[in-house]
Specification:
- With 646 residues, the protein is α/β, with parallel strands linked by helices.
- The protein contains 28 helices and 12 strands.
- The longest helix has 27 residues.
- It starts with 13 loop residues before the first strand and ends with a helix.
- The N terminus and C terminus are likely disordered.
Length: 646
């Protein structure tokens, strides 16, 4: 039998030569699509070289005198073309192997032949497997028949059992890939059809899939998976017994993870679990109990004792007095609890005597005065811009931060965010916006799809309503972030207040991610701030400080800082960081003294290094390469010629 890898029939093969009209194609063959170009090429091959592989047929079960094709439909179609083109007579007889098979065996042969030749489309395989299921065969048994795993059969059957007709049609027409289809089998029917139009057809050139995803298009199967999971809640984050959940749940067949499809049911059970934990903790910690959400603070860090502002560890006296509190958070479905804490300022030690009390009061009311002139206007404004960019970047990265900022503003606290159209700079002055370039670029991208103020209310609303959930979240976060800034009532007062510090710590704003020292920034600083940077970066060893800092101009000091190279990476001056006012003022109170001795040490080391290299250069200086004295040796000959002339 030429098709030697096919399942053996239950009787011996009978070779015959049959006319084309004696053979009828089988309805059992799962393959429905045949490439016309490949059929033409096969017809040309048969015309020149003959039929190299016999057809496989069985006696037709219902038509007398006819045979039913089991394997070789492509060859049969090519023969049909040759007869239609009159390149072969209609009564030509073609070699065929006649086998005795039942329907199950015939279907198995058809599927295996096509799988071996990689001619069968996934949905055609699925339809063939479905016929096996109709004969009461299990996926494991089907897999054994065709030498495939049970999982392979299950995934193919899901294309028919779990995909909507609309999605199945898209798969057949090539508008979605097999990988897309597999992800859609995990989604509810309504969700499948609603998300289908967002999938970019395979083969369409997309320069940046991630950017396309930002604008509502789904390119990869991973993007589709992420989008479908947005509608569900992973069961692993539940703080309650999963058995209490009565809503619909699905299991991802790839990783086995369970997802709750009813977010309202989940939220109700989660809230009840948190409240129960709070009541349990309150019995032992009457000073108060507070829940720290995952987005407010990382529960893993909370477990390490790293407390969110304004919390700190309580003193033994406070704990003994029963005034300490407890914090608890949730991480990956588990409670994280930290006890014995108190808010900053909540515990104040009573003075031991009237005199001590007076001294304490005097110390508390006598902060070190800092003159506004010590922080130049440009430097103070730049500090606000740096911290603004850090806050904007953090808020834009997490839509939940953006939601909290909006709530804060709606509750009347607008020092950080003013929810209005347009932008303002970091101190409320008109002029150039200080929104980060990344956020500006993202907003321009949204403007291209009609999301801009010039669109008009109706068109603008239509554009907003058309956004997918992930797009809506991103746009919301970017818009809120673009209106976030730190402000100052006095131009040179760049000290962060308690509210700014609390928000910065909560959203984990870090100026190191957005700030870079350049000449423009340094040009706004006075010599005192420049020397502060020199001291922070330990640049006092630069040879240019050999005669002391007083001997150098601000221009030279700026050049020394810019020459620091890698030392500048990650460095942020103290007045640009989110640090308490007292700490910032203490750092700026005195101009650091730059000791010339450090520079002299550097110079001395350089001299020693040069001296070590000097012996290597000595041989070049003592060699006698020049025949300079030779011209002088000719002098007597010159005198002799003079005497002759006389």
């Amino acid at each position: 039998m030429p098709d030697g890898n096919l399942p053996a029939p239950n009787t011996a093969i009978d070779a015959k030569f049959l006319r084309f009209d004696e053979i009828e194609r089988s309805t059992l063959n799962p393959r429905k699509h045949f490439d016309p170009a490949k059929i033409d090429a096969l017809a040309a091959s048969i015309a020149s070289s003959g039929l190299l592989h016999n057809l496989v047929v069985r006696v037709h079960p219902t038509k007398a005198g006819k045979y039913e094709l089991i394997a070789g439909e492509s060859r049969h179609r090519a023969i049909e073309k040759l007869i239609a083109a009159k390149k072969k007579p209609a009564d030509t007889r073609w070699p065929a192997n006649v086998v005795k098979m039942d329907d199950k065996q015939a279907l198995t042969v058809a599927i295996v032949e096509n799988i071996q030749r990689q001619d069968l489309a996934p949905w055609e395989e699925a339809e063939g497997f479905k016929k096996f299921v109709g004969w009461k065969m299990l996926p494991r048994e089907i897999g054994a028949q065709i030498n495939k795993t049970e999982r392979y059969v299950q995934l193919r059957l899901a294309l028919i059992d779990k995909l909507t007709p609309k999605v199945q049609t898209a798969l057949r027409e090539g508008r979605i890939s097999l990988e897309h289809a597999r992800e859609l089998t995990k989604a509810p029917a309504k969700r499948q059809d609603s998300i289908l139009e967002r999938i970019v057809p395979p083969g369409k050139k997309i320069d940046d899939p991630d950017e396309a995803f930002d604008y509502n298009d789904i390119v990869t199967a991973e993007q589709l998976k992420a989008e479908l999971r947005r509608d569900c809640v992973p069961a692993r984050v539940a703080l309650f017994d999963p058995k209490l959940y009565k809503g619909k749940a699905t299991v991802d067949p790839d990783d086995g993870e369970t997802f709750f499809e009813d977010p309202d049911e989940f939220a109700k059970l989660q809230k009840a679990a948190i409240e129960a934990k709070g009541k349990e903790l309150t019995k032992a910690w009457p000073g108060g109990v507070e829940f720290v959400g995952d987005h407010d603070y990382d529960a893993e860090e909370l477990a390490k004792g790293e407390l969110p502002y304004p919390w700190k560890k309580a003193s033994k006296e406070t704990i003994a007095a029963g005034k300490a509190a407890a914090l608890f958070g949730a991480h990956d479905g588990k409670f994280v609890v930290v006890t014995g804490v108190v808010k900053e300022g909540a515990e104040r030690a009573a003075p031991s005597s009237p005199v001590a009390g007076a001294k304490a009061a005097k110390a508390a009311n006598a902060p070190t005065p800092i003159k506004p002139e010590e922080i130049p206007f440009g430097a103070a404004r730049e500090a606000l811009v740096v911290r603004t960019h850090a806050l904007q970047t953090a808020v834009a990265a997490d839509v939940n931060h953006a939601k909290r900022i909006v709530i804060l503003g709606l509750l009347g606290q607008s020092a950080i965010a003013r929810i209005k159209s347009g932008h303002r700079d970091a101190m409320g002055f008109s002029g150039k916006s200080v929104t980060t370039p990344e956020i500006e670029s993202a907003l321009k991208g949204f403007a291209k799809i009609g999301l801009n103020e010039e669109a008009g209310e109706v068109r603008l609303w239509q554009a907003i309503a058309a956004l997918a959930p992930n797009q809506l979240d991103r746009l919301f976060a970017f818009l809120v972030a673009s209106n976030v800034s730190v402000e100052s009532h006095y131009a040179r007062d760049c000290w962060p207040d308690d509210g700014e510090l609390a928000i910065a710590r909560s959203v984990k704003a870090n100026p190191e991610h957005t700030f870079e020292i350049d000449d423009a920034f340094l040009g706004k600083l006075k010599k005192g701030q420049l020397l502060r940077i020199v001291a922070d970066l330990k640049l006092e060893g630069d040879p240019r400080f050999a005669k002391g800092a007083d001997a150098l101009t601000g221009t030279v000091i700026r050049k020394i800082i810019l020459d620091a190279g890698d030392r500048l990476k990650g460095y942020v001056p103290v007045w640009c960081r989110f640090v308490p006012e007292a700490e910032m003022k203490a750092a700026l109170k005195a101009t650091p003294k730059i000791d010339p001795a450090e520079a002299k040490k550097t110079i001395a080391k350089a001299v020693v290094a040069v001296a070590k290299e000097k012996p290597a250069a000595t041989p070049k200086a003592t060699a006698k390469p020049k025949p300079a004295p030779k011209p002088k040796a000719k002098a007597p000959a010159k005198a002799k010629s003079k005497s002759k002339g006389k």
